[in-house]
């Protein structure tokens, strides 16, 4: 778990008062996420619980409520040790709601919107509404449904664009019933992935009318879009080919831990979008609902995943212990909660499960899960990601799609990996494509490259991909991995190798990098660190060099050129110091102190240009990129002076005074010429005044074990991060100051409102 174990028992208690006038209502507790084995009591009576820490669930409190008097709600959580391969967090880390309804009401997750026919001219919208009758009498109700357009912020228009015909529904006592309705919308505004398409959305407003009175109103956001999964050409959204440029994301938010925060999640997505990412695989569990809402709004495609293991364990006390009993309710709840999100394009029911090794028995488990998905939502394909199973094995035939982790590119099949033990495979895309010619193939995990931002170790690997080892891209003593972005976990591949492999197999729909951001736990390759090294972006949100390699490939129309390493090497004068360049252009000329080191052109499926024999001389490197023979972009890297000043830059200078909104402040160490000093590792301290609070600090160094809540942090290669929130209900000016010995004090101002 990355030096952050979170086992143990926790109790939450809350006093509630519900008036006697509510005695004819239904009272529910809706828990979005509780880690884990939740048990709930009300007034000393056991209400129920749910073991899976990532599940969202509802409990009926009504029979236990003392209306008009005091009530005590108690929740017990129990995190077993050795229950996860990554940092799971602990406690009530997502929202908890008290929900009050009439006895007759729309059920939890009680609407289901589908769009079976979609074109630019018109679309059919089907709406299923499940109504629940908790009263002792049968009732006959009327259901009214209207559709409104939503703006980019999720606000509905004043008038509906469509109204469904009214439907009558007879509800027996203590039972549920479903209403089905359909309508055609002319000239619909379609939802699609940004920036290729626009993420337009609609709102369905469902009303339950009883005795001429509206007794329930339920809102459902959705999008109108079509999906086509073509085995030869990939994914089509609204009839247009969309190549999947995705990343895998774990559920933690770095220094904030596992507790969900909307602003922090949006910042992650904003940086990924800047790189050219258009898709997220939720690794390997249901995400917070708010994250899917962000993906809907921002136009990200989502592969929604629920389980990391089935009946065969990965850690001694993980979900395998209860999988036989709980996998079905978990899976049904997961799909019902998330099936109206237009961003959600696929259901993944497993990741690298042990059942890959168990032949027909494993295939039977897979078939059971696949069938449940199809019962709940036949509109999306199923997936389970394989890192071992081969085309001839029975489990691979079960799912609608072929999802491959690392096998597609080939595992340990490059010369630099020949000495490693373990499974070795050639690229498996062709074999799966030949065996399942009608199935879409997806690279559900690829890469597993590792690096520490701003650390460059010598010598540099000659090939395009190499396993990290001591003295070969790795420094175990300090816990650093070279940022030349050539080094990987033993089973992985560099970005260069992955992108080249996908380009050579155009029938693959695209893929998901492991991983978008560094995450807590799984500290590969150095187990004593706090977090992973896999991210394209470090834990603090600072871009690694790999970010620009992917940006060059994924945003070919965006003029850019990026040079590495930095050019502060006082102990390497005259020594060979390789220079690598990433660009969206097709040629680059490199200059050192004004002297050309040659002009190079990218070959087909080549993603970096290399000058491997540069002798280090202080000064300035300049790269001038060309595209189609014309100047495209340029960039410089300069030898700096010593760090002498601190610069603070907030990503947002105005935040909401609600205790949840955040400002992320980047702290840079600069020289006298105002240049970032890329090798400065100076201890810093931070203070705050006004109606605000420093929530956390970080520097992106996986080996750094200083508490995230500390107000003292050493900059890592010139950078540090301070996360600030405002005190709820206290608007005003918040001053954040940074100090370092010999530097003086610098500050920035944030306003809360």
From TrEMBL:
Residues covered by the Beta-mannosidase-like galactose-binding domain: 11-83
Record key words, sorted: Glycosidase, Hydrolase
Residue ranges constituting the Glycoside hydrolase family 2 catalytic domain according to the UniProt record: 234-392
GO biological process: carbohydrate metabolic process
DUF4982 domain location: 574-633
Signal peptide: none
Listed NCBIfam families: GalB
Record protein name field: DUF4982 domain-containing protein
């Amino acid at each position: 778990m990355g030096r952050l174990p979170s086992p143990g028992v926790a109790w939450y208690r809350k006093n509630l008062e519900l008036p006697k006038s509510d005695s004819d209502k239904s009272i529910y507790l809706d828990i979005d996420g509780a880690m884990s084995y939740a048990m709930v009591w009300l007034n000393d009576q056991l209400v129920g619980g749910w073991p899976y820490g990532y599940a969202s669930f509802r409990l009926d409190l009504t029979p236990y409520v003392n209306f008009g008097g005091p009530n005590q709600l108690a929740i017990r959580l129990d995190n077993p040790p050795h229950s996860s391969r990554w940092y799971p967090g602990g406690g009530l880390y997502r929202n908890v709601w008290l929900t009050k309804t009439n006895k007759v009401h729309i059920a939890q997750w009680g609407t289901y919107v589908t769009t079976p026919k979609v074109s630019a001219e018109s679309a059919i919208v089907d709406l299923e509404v499940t109504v629940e009758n908790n009263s002792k009498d049968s009732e006959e109700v009327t259901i009214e449904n209207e559709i409104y357009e939503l703006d980019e912020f999720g606000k509905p228009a004043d008038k509906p664009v469509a109204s469904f015909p009214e439907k009558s529904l007879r509800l027996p006592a203590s039972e549920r019933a479903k209403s089905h309705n359909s309508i055609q919308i002319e000239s619909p505004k379609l939802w699609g992935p940004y920036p290729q398409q626009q993420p337009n959305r609609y709102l369905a407003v469902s009303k339950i009318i009883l005795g001429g009175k509206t007794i329930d109103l339920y809102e459902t956001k959705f999008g109108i879009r079509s999906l086509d999964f073509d085995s030869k050409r990939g994914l089509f959204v609204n009839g247009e080919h969309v190549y999947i440029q995705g990343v895998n994301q774990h559920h933690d938010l770095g220094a904030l831990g596992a507790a969900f925060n909307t602003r922090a999640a949006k910042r992650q997505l904003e940086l990924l979008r800047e790189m050219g990412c258009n898709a997220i695989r939720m690794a390997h569990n249901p995400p917070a609902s708010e994250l899917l809402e962000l993906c809907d709004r921002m136009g990200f495609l989502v592969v929604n995943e629920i389980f990391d293991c089935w009946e065969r364990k990965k850690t001694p006390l993980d979900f395998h212990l209860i999988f036989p009993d709980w996998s079905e309710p978990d899976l049904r709840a997961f799909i019902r909660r998330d099936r109206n999100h237009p961003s959600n394009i696929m259901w993944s029911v497993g990741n690298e499960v042990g059942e890959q090794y168990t032949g027909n028995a494993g295939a039977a488990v897979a078939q059971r899960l696949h069938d449940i998905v199809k019962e709940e939502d036949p509109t999306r394909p199923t997936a389970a990601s394989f890192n071992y199973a081969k085309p001839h094995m029975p489990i691979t035939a079960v799912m609608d799609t072929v999802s491959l982790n690392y096998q597609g590119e080939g595992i340990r099949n490059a010369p630099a990996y020949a000495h490693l033990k373990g499974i070795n495979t050639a690229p498996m895309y062709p074999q799966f494509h030949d065996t399942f010619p009608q199935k879409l193939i997806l690279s559900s995990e690829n890469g597993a490259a590792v690096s520490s931002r701003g650390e460059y170790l010598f010598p540099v690997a000659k090939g395009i991909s190499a396993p990290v080892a001591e003295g070969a891209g790795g420094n175990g003593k300090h816990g650093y991995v070279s940022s030349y972005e050539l080094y990987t976990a033993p089973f992985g591949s560099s970005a260069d190798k992955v992108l080249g492999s996908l380009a050579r197999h155009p029938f693959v729909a695209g893929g998901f990098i492991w991983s978008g951001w560094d995450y807590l736990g799984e500290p590969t390759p150095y187990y004593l660190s706090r977090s992973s090294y896999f991210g394209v972006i470090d834990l603090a949100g600072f871009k690694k060099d790999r970010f620009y390699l992917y940006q060059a490939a994924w945003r070919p129309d965006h003029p850019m050129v990026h040079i590495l390493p930095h050019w502060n090497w006082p102990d390497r004068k005259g020594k060979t110091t390789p220079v690598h360049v990433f660009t969206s252009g097709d040629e680059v000329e490199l200059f050192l102190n004004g002297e050309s080191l040659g002009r190079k052109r990218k070959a087909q499926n080549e993603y970096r240009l290399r000058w491997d024999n540069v002798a280090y001389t202080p000064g300035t490197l300049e790269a001038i990129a060309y595209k189609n023979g014309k100047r495209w972009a340029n960039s410089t890297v300069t030898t700096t002076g010593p760090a002498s000043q601190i610069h603070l830059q907030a990503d947002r200078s105005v935040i909401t005074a609600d205790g949840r909104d955040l400002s992320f402040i980047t702290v840079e160490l600069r020289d006298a010429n105002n240049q970032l000093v890329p090798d400065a590792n100076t201890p810093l301290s931070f203070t705050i005044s006004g109606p605000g609070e420093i929530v956390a600090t970080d520097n992106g160094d996986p080996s750094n074990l200083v508490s995230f809540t500390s107000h003292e942090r050493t900059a890592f290669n010139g950078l540090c991060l301070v996360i600030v929130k405002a005190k709820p209900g206290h608007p005003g000016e918040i001053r954040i100051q940074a100090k370092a010995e010999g530097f003086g004090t610098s500050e920035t101002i944030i306003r809360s409102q």
